Each structure stands twice: as structure tokens, then as C-alpha cells.
Amino acid sequence: MDEELLLTRIITGIEGGGEDDESHYHDLVTDLKSLLDTDDDEILNRFYGSLSSVASSFLRCVSAAMDSPVESGRLAILASDAYLSLLLSTNCPVFTFFSPIAFLSLLGSIRRYLKRRNRDDSAAQGSNSQREKGNKKKRGRGKRNLGYEDDGGETEEGGFDAKLLFRVLDRLGSVLSFVHLDRFPDSLKSLVQTVSEIPLSALEHSGFLNYDRLMDMCGKILGGVLSSDHGDMAITAAEISKSLTPLLLMGKHQARSFALGFVSRKLMGLAKDNSELKKVVSNLPKFFVHKSPEKAEPRGFAVEAILEIVKAMEVEDQSDFVDFLMKMCQGKSNYRILAVDLIPLLISSLANPLGVIGSEDGSKDSWGLSCLDALLKRCSDTNALIRARALSNLAQVVGFLSGDARSRSILKHALGFNGETSEGKGVVTDLLKKRCVDEKAAVRRAALLLVTKLTSLMGGCFDGSILKTMGTSCSDPLISIRKAAISALSEAFRICTDEIVTTEWLHSVPRMIMDNETSIQEECENVFHELVLERILRAGNVLSPDSASLPNNGNTTSKNLDGDIEALFPEGVLVLLRELCNSEVSPWVTKICGSLGKKKRLKPRVAFALQSIIKESESLWLSRSMPINKWTAPAGAWFLLSESEGLDEQGEEQGVECNSSTWAGDRVCLLQTISNVSLQLPAEPAADLADNLLKKIEKFNLHSAEVDAHVKALKTLCKKKACASEESDMLVKKWVEQLLSKASKVTEKYIEGVSSNNHSFVTPATLGSRRSKRLDSVSKKLSKVVTAVYTIGSCVIIYPSADTTKIVPLLHTVITSGNSDSKLKNKLPQGDVCLKQKAPPLYSQSWLTMAKMCLADGKLAKRYIPLFAQELEKSDCAALRNNLVVAMTDFCVHYTAMIECYIPKITKRLRDPCEVVRRQTFILLSRLLQRDYVKWRGVLFLRFLLSLVDESEKIRRLADFLFGSILKVKAPLLAYNSFVEAIYVLNDCHAHTGHNNPDSKQSKTKDQAFSVRGNDERARSKRMQIYITLLKQMAPEHLLATFAKLCAEILAAASDGMLNIEDVTGQAVLQDAFQILACKEIRLSVSRGASSETVEMEEEGGDSNAAAAKGRAITQAVRKGLIQNTIPIFIELKRLLESKNSPLTGSLMDCLRVLLKDYKNEIEEMLVADKQLQKELIYDMQKHEAAKARSMANQGVACGTSRGNGEPEEPATSENVRDSGLESRVVAAAADAVAAKAARSVLKEINGGAATPPLSAMSVPKLRSSRGGIQSGRPSADVLESLRRRPTFMSDDES
């Protein structure tokens, strides 16, 4: 019978051993599986009896089969299936056939079966499967005997059988129900590890198996071993948690979900009824804290896992974890950042963080307040990444807690905003002041985000310094910071309409329309449209026809009326309009309105609202019986209306009706409005208006600001009157020539009058009214001629082809009247009349008009540009110099080639005594540089550097923005290429042989104005500020190259004699080089810059590994440069300075000490070729530090002596000592000095107040020398020589 044959074959195969033949094991497993599938209990009992006698051999054979590596683990998994079937069969003696070794082999077969397969394994398995098919044919058995006849539906191409795996895992769970592993801890540990690895290993085969069913099986097995039958549940739970940790810290996929679900549900559920298991579970989040990785993304997965576990814990355990979290905030950096990331998630996920439930005012001891306090402290962490994360997470917490009224109140108290008395000042105010200007961009961005959230919390009520800080951040070099600053400031302006917020927003945000980034320009337009135009539109719509009928009291004053007008318009609209016409805001408003008009976003409704505001203001004025000739429209209303374009016909007609203003500025804006809408006027009213305007201009009594508006409006009206463009040009030409003719006559008449008065006989001035009338008449004539000359310029700009042949000689006469050249005076008809002194306004206005004419005529410009340059250099009038700078920069745009040679003269105005001229020159030249009309070459860049330390704060801010934002993008190598030359120029140093030239004296005189000479502290600090600004613009590799250039071109030049170190300026250059090499901007950015760069990239989500590799490469390059170049140069220069007793020796030693402090472990390697030199260098550095310590100690002793009040001296601390290594030396030297002082005082007391006599005055015995003579007072030469050769060493305390 078949069963008998199988039984015999199995026993024979076991007794035969197998000789390590894989086919033998294959046959054995197949026979065993076939035998176990029989239903004959008698045969099975006989088999168990026969097998018991050879149990050890059987287990050895089965273990070998389960350890078999062939067929990609298929033989092994089949053997495991057969072994588990044996243990589960009826009446099987389990304890006879169960072995820990066989169980470990079974687990190993499961792991190998799930391993990834390659093509070679698949090919080998294909050949093995063919061989297996042939063997089965020989034995005459089919697949039915293997027990997996239905497996073909879920079999992978490489041979993976999902049903076989499920069957093995199912039978494994069944075996564990009666086989307890409490006696086999290693087997239990291996089981837990294997089952924990299955979810991850099975991902490769997820397309060929039911993954959810597999996770359920794994969960049942792990849950099954969590019983007392398998040992201590706490130990088992700890082992399971440890094994599942890698899954919990992985990315989001099914394996992680399985691990997280098992821990948070299964383990937590069992822990409620088991105190020992509860201890393990409560410590589980702490275990994950220690296992969390440092990289950003994996750390985020760890935070999510910890949060899910803590959420499933009981309240007491949650409180315990929060206490642990507070300790983490004081630990290492990786723990601190993990705690910072956990705090906002805990506050937003756990219940009642501030204790508001069950208490009206909240609990002062709530865990949420402790978390807030810890988060506030981490905002000042030494680690930049932690500071940034703490600020952004605090912003998240503020946004979450602000949603509830009770939580909002507690939050305000926690942050120090104690209700109405705080006025926007709280604990975070000083914090934000520092963090908004932090050196790290991520910190600044997070601080601005926090400001945005706090704005909503406080209703926009902030300290003025915070608002100014946000305004400064709008000029940050980084685009993301500028965007965040605009968002934060706009949020404050959106919520609060106070005057301080409105003013800061208008002075900071609209100017961003000139930013290089298009997205920032669009954002600026959007917020201006929302916060300015929409607000004005709402204010105009609120007004009703009867809104002006306010109660009229008899004693109406100007102050009361102003209050009524402000109450009439909501949302601070009057303050907004008044600030819009500010001279620093209006240019940007004009630019924004023009851009919005081109995009058709400037709607007519805005004009209607402005008209309503003007009308309501006038109606309110008249309702109080106030005289109409004293009424003025709300400041800024006419200005904004004049900038509005794209209005429909109805709106334009209404705009013309509002003409009752008498203020000059309003008249200009009104004329601008007329000019904008004149194309929609009817022909006859347009003609009448044009005639009136022309007559008004011909009187030459307008203000200069009104002349341009009249001329522009007149030109626009001519277009309306004409039927064709040629006719409009003829009309414009006609009235322009008419105006030019009359203006030239007025000018010529005035010049002739001044000339005749100058030649006439001068009589004593009459007294009384006649003298007063004469002065008034002269003043009126001068005012008229100045307006006439200005009108000439306005007409030339409107009509460039106008005939100016009669006007040019007149203006030439005026602008050359102050020339000291006698030959030129004789050639001029009125050459002996100095109009510069007699009529300064006419003189200045003539230059401006001549500039406008030169812009219209290139030949005229070629003749007069040298005169403009000469006057710019010699003029003593600040207003004229300012206008000439504007003219010269305009010439640069139109006549670039002609003006290029005069650029150095224009740049001299960067050091002008007048701040307005300096700022105007800086702005105009910066625009030319951005538009490439002027190149960054020659002295231009070096002269711009002085603006970084200008006396004016506005100019310094503009310079910081130019160098930090625009120049860094447009010319990134400029700072690097010009750095060394800047050091010589700023010190006005010509002591270098490379600077010697025949014109050195002349160049020295020219460059003195653009230098910061001197060795005083103020001059050195200014120069260092410029150097640091340039270093911040350089990439790490350029910093490295700059380091090498400083050593080669300054230090090496000094040691070789090319730089005269006896010259004062040469010494200043060398000292600046030492300070630059020792500053952190060049030293840390090169040697340790990788870490900070990695922090920034990790915060941005970049690849920190690449940044770290780049940092290591830079560090190696720095080390190589130090070894090859720097140290030998320093040593040679040190010897030279010592030979000359130069005071720069101390600066050199300070610089060398700072440089070698980062490489103190590599000094021996750097100087491996010269050990003696190494010892000398270390000894000299120690000696210098010791001398420095003694000097500081003596100062401390002197301070202690000067007190005389018995108070102990204050010891030298680390605050007044440069580094921690020097502190111990200072303390030791101070102790020595105090001891010496005490000894002197004791001797003085013993001698009765008399000083100790010198040794020569004391009676001492005389000794005979070895030669028998009396030794003189002078020691012998050999004794002196021995003492001289005796080496002296510093004490161990100083080493």
C-alpha cells in the first residue's frame, strides 16, 4: 500500500542521513507532506512511533531542508510547511518534534522566501523547476501530492507563491497557541523580529498577494505572543516595539501604517489592564525620541509616530511625557528640535491644553503654558534651525489657540500682552526685534510669520519698533523674506487703521513696485488695490447725500471741524490720503496707478469715491458757514484722482466740476486730472479751456509746479480741438512758439535791465515807501523771468523741434555770467554782469532749462556738457548741484558715449556735503547701473562703498539694499574682484610699489574724499563694516580665494618689502588684513560654513548631503591653503615686524591665534617639516597670551586698588576675555599679581613703613673666587653665559 511505502521511504531517508544532497531533502519533504495528508490515523500513529526513535535525526534533516538556499527559498518554505503540518497533526507528540533550532530554521526560511530576487535567481529557479517536474514524473506523482493544487492563481513569474506563504503563517500562528516560547527567549525574539520584517519585505510582492490579509496575519502572530504563556508580557512588548521602530520611522506606506496601528491600538489596549505593560507603553514615546533620526523628513515621521502613541495614552501618562518633553528642551540639539516640533502638535491634538475646561480663567499650572514657555525660550536658541522651527511652530500655536475666546485671553497673558495696558508690548516684543534681523534667513522668515499671526491676535496693535522692523525687512536681500515682510505688514494694515500702521505700510510696501522680482511687483499692486483703493471705494460708498448735515454748533473751530471731517470718513481714509501725497510715497503711488491703469484694474468707481469725498468735505465746510476761499480738499484726494485713468465719460465730467480748490498742490493735481480726462470733453468747452490756460501761462506768474500741468493739459486739449494729428501738431507748434517768443522777450528785457543798472551811476538808496516799492518791483520781475525761463524748458520738453536759436544766447549769457575767465567776459555782450550773484534763482533755473534744451538737441548737448560738468564740480549751491546731477544722469541715457568720461565727476557727488545731493546721486547712479547705461568699472564701485557708512541712515539703507540684493544678483563676482583694491583705496594707501606712478600725488588728492583714513577706532570700525558687507556677498569658494589673495597680495607684499609698513597708511592696510582674516565672516563661512548651509538647505527641504560634501571639500581646501601658503607668510612677516619693533606684532599674533584655534589638532601636521619652528610658534603664541593676561590682570588689580573701600576685586570673566583658553591665564596672572602686592605690603609693615634697601646697600660677606681673589660685584662671563643659555618655559597652567 502507498502509505506503507511512504512510511518506509521517510524512515529510510532519515536513517540514511542525506549526504547533503538537495534532491534527497526535496524527496523527504515531499514524502512527509504526502503522508501527513492521509486520513488513516493508524498509519500516522505508527509513523509517530517509528519517528520518535529517530527524532534527533529527523529534526536535523528537517532543519537542513528549511535552511536550504536553492530554488529561491521554495524548498525551505515547503519544508517549513511540512514541519508545521506535522506539529498540527492529530495525536502528534509536539514536545518530541519541537526544537528551538528547527524553529529558528523555520523563521529563516520565511525571511529568505521574501527576499528580493534578481534575474539570475529567476533563471536558476526556472531550471530547478524543470528538474523538479522531471523527478515528479519519474516518481509518478503530480502536484496533487504536494498539497498546493490551487496555488497557480497567485504565483509570481519568479516563483513566489502567495498562498503557500499565507498557509505557513496561518499554521505558525496555530502552533504558537499550544507551543509556548517562555522557555525559549531566543526563539521568541527571533519570531518577533521576523514577523516585524515581513510587512517591509513583502512590499516587493504586493502585486501578487493580499497585503491587508498579510498584515492581519502578522498582527495576530504578534498579538498572540503578547500573553503570559510566552513569558513576561512587558519584555515581549518591549521587544516588539524595538522591532517595529524601523517601520515607524519610515516614509508613509502600508508597512508603517501596520506598525503604527498595532502599537497605538493593540499595545495600548492591553496596557490598560496590565500595570507592568503600562510602564513599557508609557516609556515607548521616550524610546522613539532617542531613536529618531536627525534629518528633517525622517524626523517628521518620528514626530507623527510619537504623537499617535501619545494620543492613545491615558491623561496621566500624557502629562508624564510632557514633563519629559520639557527636559528635552534643555538637552542636546537633536532633542531640542524634536521637542520644538512636538509641542505644536501636542497642543493642537490633545484636549484642554490651557486648562480652560472646568475653569473660567484656565489653570496656571496647565501643561500647555509650560509648552508655550519652552517654545518661547527655544526662539532664542543658539542653533539657527531650532530658532527658526520654534518661531514657526509658535506661530502655528498662536493661530490655533486664537480661535477660542477663552484660549485667546490666556494666550495674551502668557505672551505678556496684558490687556489694554500692554499697548502692543509683551514678552515677544524684544524677541521679535532680534529675530526679525537675525543673521539666518530661515529665522527672519519664521519671525515674520509669527508677527502675522500675532497681528490677528492683537488686532494690529503693535509696538512701533516692530512695525519699523517689518518695514526694514521689506528691503531684505532674499526674495522670500521680502514677500513675508509684505504679507506681515499688510496683515497689520488690514486689521488696524491706526496712523502709525498706515504710515509704516505706505513708506515700506508701495516702494516694492520697483523690485526686480516680478512676483513682488504683482503682490505690491494687489495689496495696494485691496488696502488703499478698495478702502477709499468703501468710504465713498458709505457717504450719503445727507451725511454732511451734522449738528451745527455756534462756536465752530478749525479743530472741531477737522474732528467732524475725520468722523465723517471711516477706516482712517483721511490719514491714508494725506500720507499718499507724501514726497517719499507719491512716486511709488504714481507707478502703481500707472501699472494698474495699463492692466485695466483702475475702475471709475474709485474716481467717483474720491469725488464724493471732496464734495462731502466742501459741503461740511459750507454747512458751518466757513468762507469758501479758505477751504481745501482733504490732502491727497486730488493727487490720487489725478493719477486715476481709464475713467468713463460720466466720471470725467464730474471730475471737471470739482474745481473750487485754491491750494497750489491741489491745482496741480486738478490740472493733471483735466489732462487725463480732456479727450472726452466736448470740442467747444475744450477750446475755451485751452484759451484760458494759454492766457494764464503767458502771464508768467504761475508756480513752477503748475507750469508743467498747464502745458500738459494745453497739449492734450489741442488734440481734442484738432481733427487730425497733423493739425494738432500745428496747433501745439503755434502756441509753443508764441510762448517761447514772449518768454525770450521777458528774459532779454530783464538781462538788459540788470546790465543797465550795473553801468548806471549808483545813488544812495532812498528811504521809506519808495525803497520798499522798488524792492517789490525787482522781486516781481525776478519771479516773472524765472517762471518765463522755466516755461521755456517745459515747452521744449512738450515740443522738442521748437526753434530756440534766439533763446540759447540768452541762457548762455546767464549761465556763463559767473565765469571768472576775463577773455570770455569780453566776448559776451553782458559779460561783466554777474547774474549768479545778482539773481541766483534765474542762474539756477537757466541751467535747468539749458539741460532740457540739450536733451532735445544733440548738437547743443555736445557743446554744453563740459560746462555742466564744470559747474557741477564748482557750484556752491546744493539745489543747483542736485539739479545738475539729475541733468547729467539724463544725458547719460541719451548721450551715453559723450557722458562716459564725466562719470567720475558725477560720482564725486556721493561725498557731497548735502545729504539730499548724496542720496539723489546714489539713487540715480544705481538706476543707471541696473539699466547698464553705466558699468561697474574703474573707481565707480570703490566710490559706492562709502555709502555703506554714510552719516545718513536713509543712504545706508539704500546702500545695503543695493549691495545685498541688486548687486549680488547682477554682478556676483564684483565684490571678490575688487576686495583687495578696496582695502588700499579705503586707507588711501599709496605705499605699495604697484600704486606708485607719476600722478600719485594727484590721484592721492582725488581719492582722499573716498577713503576712511586713520587708525582710530571709528575709522577702523567703518572700514570693517564695509569689508563685512562685501564678504557676505561672496560664495564660499570666493571667500576661500579672497583669503588666499589677502595673504598673497598684502601679507606677502609686506614681508617682501613691496608694502611699506613704516608708512601710516601701509600699517593701516596690514592691520585691516589681519582683522579681515580673523573675522568670522571669512573664517567661519569657509571652515565651518558647511553646517550653516546645511541648516538652511534642510529648512528649505534641499539635499543636505550635497551641502555637507561641499563643506568638507571647502574645509580641506582651506587646510591645504593654510599649510602651503598662510603659515610661512605669517612666520616671515612676524620676524620682520619683530625686527622693526612694530606695534602690528600684536595684531598678527591675535590673527594667527584665531586662525590656528580651528586647527589646533593639525598644527603638528602643518609644520611637520620643521619641529623647532612649530615649538617656537606655539611658545610665542602662549607668551603673547600670557602677556595679554597679565596686562588684563594688572588692570583688574589697579581697579581693585583704586576702590579703596574694602570691596574685593572683580575677577576677569569670560565676557571681557576673548576666549575661554585665556580665562585661566588671566585668573592665574591675577592671583600672582595679588600675591606680589600682598608680599610688598607685608615687607613694608615689617620695615616700619620703610622700603626694603637694595642689595648693594646691605652689609654682606664677600666671597673669594676659585682663583683665590676677592670676587667683584660683576659676575664672571661664564656664569652669565650659562644663565643666558638656560631656557625658560611657561608653567603648566599657561600651556
Quickly list its features.
elongated; coiled coil; Cnd1_C; Condensin-2 complex subunit; 69% helix; cell division; cell cycle; 0% strand; 1295 residues; mainly alpha
Describe the structure.
This protein has 1295 residues and is an all-alpha fold. The protein is 69% helix and 0% strand. It contains 62 helices and no strands. Helix 4 runs antiparallel to helix 5. The longest helix is centred in the last third of the chain and has 36 residues, at 1104-1139. The protein starts with a helix and ends in a 10-residue tail after the last helix. 38% of the residues are buried. The C terminus is likely disordered.
Q: Residue-averaged pLDDT, rounded?
A: 76
Distance between the termini: 95 Å
**Percent in helix:** 55-70%
| Extended strand count | 0
Number of helices: 62
Structural class of the helix and strand makeup?
A: mainly alpha
Q: Report Rg.
A: 46 Å
Shape: elongated
Uncertain spans? 118-158, 419-424, 544-556, 646-663, 759-767, 822-831, 996-1005, 1085-1104, 1201-1222, 1263-1276, 1283-1295
The major pleated sheet works out as: none
Percent of residues in beta strands? under 5%
